[in-house]
């Protein structure tokens, strides 16, 4: 049953500007962002000289956002942690070098994110020396969000630098390059026979710079040769002391790939990395392409994409990098290994499974580990409204996958252990009779299902542009739920765990505010929430709480999964656009629950503390 909506006005004190944003969230988002990107490029041409920085937030807002009340802390392994103490001496020495390698990757990512990040950080350091208290708060926020720019929990865009806006091309395209000019230059280059140059521009591993009237792509390894070489040095030092030879072989392959601009070297390292299962340590250079909003505009230009395909060129969004170093937790890994054994069986039940090649075959090329984190840098450690709790890599655009390599799931124990108590978060909006199913282990089971599902379904998806990641995340969520009943029957979950997973899935689709199209993970949640509401998955009780109709969750997830897989299999851009446009709609139900969630928490962002990594970095 539905209830009459009442006005619930959360009190955020000095954060009342959130409400001015929220009053606009009842309409569907404009999913064609080209005009907005044009305006931003024009603004970047005129509003920033790069000669002098000023702080972009008032003293009051800086102090509040940096306070413990609004900036929650996630603590990684301590110096005294038993996980570290129990390591063999050689692995302790290796871990020190892995942390340092991850730090160098973090320095590269700062530059990929925006060319102003490092100069602005230096500006903050100088201001702190001068006694500028505001700079102290700004530096704390900069370190937490890993850069000048972020979105908070309520999807408000934050810039720590006055008059500086985040560019759609981040630090991988010229800041003053508009979409119109970008497309025009690419067309001219193709017409003038510069196919190879265009290929370099549109790969996932180049920084694009102006080259006279044209553009040029510089491979990341060449662009950041100093930082990559230093990281490679540390990996080789780690390989000299680590106790696991398989792991050492991977480190040496990864070091080699950091010294020479060759995608095949990366592929060799990725293939080895994905095969690792029983190692004491974990190290990863994560590469994700969710942040590039410039390359994806090409798919909105039918003439340009047709011209590129005619020349045998397919655009790939740019990678952004993270570094991860940690200690493999054997107990947590055992459950993951158990879940892995069901993947080949699950593949047989995927929609339209006879129309595409499955990554998961009888060889089951998938490794899985639960990791106690020591260091996370770059995109792995940035807290911008959310933090990464697990990853399934390499992504499908990487050469390692095309060469037949497998994938690796890594779960971040400290991230999920430090998350806000799931009971306090969801008890506010859930019927009291269902609250007993809200257990942290059930949320973890859902995340495992999500990451496993990334390894199922179509492999060759090349034409969905900015909808690629949205639909892939949508697929992973719905597939995780579609298989819950099977996995319960097969013995992975108990009946109570099954109910908890389904309830948590429904609840986590209700957000505290409406996201924009730039956040794929949150867009898919809005889509799912609308879809579940339309299919009777939940009702409201007389006191305004959500009651989940458990028996409707799995059938609805299966229905949505079928629609997503059809689009992915057809690789149809227009169908993807129509699907997202039809489902990315913020409803009255979402608005009603968002107010409750906002009333229940004032946390705006977070910070990852790394005490053991700090110790190892200085020794």
Explain what you see:
By secondary structure, the protein is an alpha+beta fold. It folds into two domains: 202 residues, no CATH class; 306 residues, 2-Layer Sandwich (Fructose-1,6-Bisphosphatase, Chain A, domain 1), CATH 3.30.540.30. It contains 28 helices and 13 strands. The strands form five sheets. Strands 6-7-8-10-9 form a five-stranded mixed β-sheet. The protein has a two-stranded parallel ribbon with strand order 1-13. The protein has a two-stranded antiparallel sheet with strand order 2-3. A hairpin with a 5-residue loop joins β11 and β12. The N terminus is likely disordered.
Sequence-ordered SSE layout with sheet pairings:
Elements lengths: L16 H6 L11 H13 L12 H7 L5 E5 L6 H4 L3 H25 L3 H13 L3 H13 L3 E3 L5 E3 L19 H13 L3 H7 L4 E6 L2 E6 H4 L1 H15 L5 H15 L3 H13 L5 E8 L13 H9 L9 E10 H11 L2 H5 L18 E13 L11 E4 L5 H4 L4 E6 H5 L4 H5 L13 H14 L14 H15 L1 H6 L5 H14 L11 H15 L3 E3 L5 E3 L1 H21 L2 H11 L4 H13 L4 E5 L1 H7 L2
Helix pairs in contact: 3-7, 5-11, 6-7, 11-12, 12-13, 20-21, 20-23, 21-24, 21-25
